[in-house]
Design brief:
By secondary structure, the protein is α+β, with helices and mostly antiparallel strands. The protein contains 7 helices and 12 strands. It has helices at residues 2-25, 67-75, 82-108, 148-155, 164-173, 203-207, 256-264, and strands at residues 30-35, 39-40, 46-54, 58-64, 112-118, 124-125, 127-134, 139-146, 192-195, 225-229, 232-242, 245-253. α1 (2-25) packs across α3 (82-108).
Length: 265
């Protein structure tokens, strides 16, 4: 049934949103889900609509309630004008959905591409969730809506083929009771990345970037690069070239127990 895939969809998007917000704010965000009834997408708030490609097809959208709070997280300061708020919110949604695309593809072991369409939603929501993210001080709410076309795409035949490991991962994301069985998760594909450095930029600086621009990172040339799973560093090492591709010669790495603990945080 499509419902299990939609649950995984919502849980993975929520996890991606919490990771993105946590990176921007420099503190941990936790998420929770609450059922959103099917029906026409409610007006008000800023919608961001996306198209799905690859092994799934259809449209989906997210709508934010606390627009200025979301915009402030991206800009680093309260927005100066309504238009700046709108652009910041949409940019934040694009960042979250880019992270979500990779995470959901890994969870289902299927190809998924996501394309931003705009901020107008003219279809009825067949399924969805109200998502809630909190850093312990402020709580941010988002409505996620899935179109009928995307719901049907999930139901036939993709939802029936969800691997037990992917469903187990969904249960972990939803913070189910009981200890997760690691044996069910060992074959789940996870995306790792190398980080050469980072830099905090305002939305204005990002929009002003052009070919030839140089961005200075916060890491020296002789410092080891970091290997990340999501946003968590679990190894460091030296950059090497293997058959024309970049690689990493690991020089330090956390213990297996620490790596498992990082996955659960």
């Amino acid at each position: 049934m499509a419902s299990s895939t939609i649950d995984l969809w919502c849980a993975t998007w929520l996890e991606s949103a919490c990771e993105t917000l946590g990176t921007l704010a420099g503190k941990k965000f936790s998420g929770s889900l609450a059922e959103s009834p099917a029906g026409e997408a409610e007006p008000g708030g800023e919608w961001a609509e996306f198209d799905c490609g690859g092994d799934l097809s259809g449209r989906w959208a997210v709508r934010v309630a606390e627009e200025p709070a979301f915009a402030t997280l991206l800009l680093g300061a309260p927005p100066a004008a309504p238009e700046e708020t709108k652009e910041a919110v949409l940019e934040l949604f694009r960042q979250i959905s880019g992270r979500f695309e990779s995470a959901f593809s890994s969870a289902l072991k299927r190809k998924l591409t996501i394309t931003f369409r705009g901020s107008e939603v003219a279809w009825q929501s067949a399924a969805g969730q109200m998502l809630q993210m909190s850093d312990g001080v402020q709580t941010l709410r988002v409505q996620l809506a899935v179109s009928k076309e995307l719901e049907e795409s999930m139901a036939a035949p993709l939802a029936e083929e969800i691997a037990p490991s992917a469903q187990a991962q969904s249960n972990v994301v939803l913070q189910s009771t009981g200890e997760p069985n690691l044996e069910l998760l060992l074959d789940v594909g996870l995306e790792v990345s190398l980080r050469f450095g980072q830099q905090r930029m305002s939305l204005r600086q990002i929009l002003e970037l052009a070919p030839g621009a140089v961005i200075e990172l916060d890491q020296q040339v002789n410092e080891p690069v970091e290997l990340l799973l999501g946003e968590k560093v679990f190894a460091r090492g030296d950059v090497v070239v293997v058959d024309g591709n970049y690689g990493l010669r690991v020089t330090e790495i956390s213990s297996p127990g620490q790596r498992v603990e990082q996955l659960g945080n």
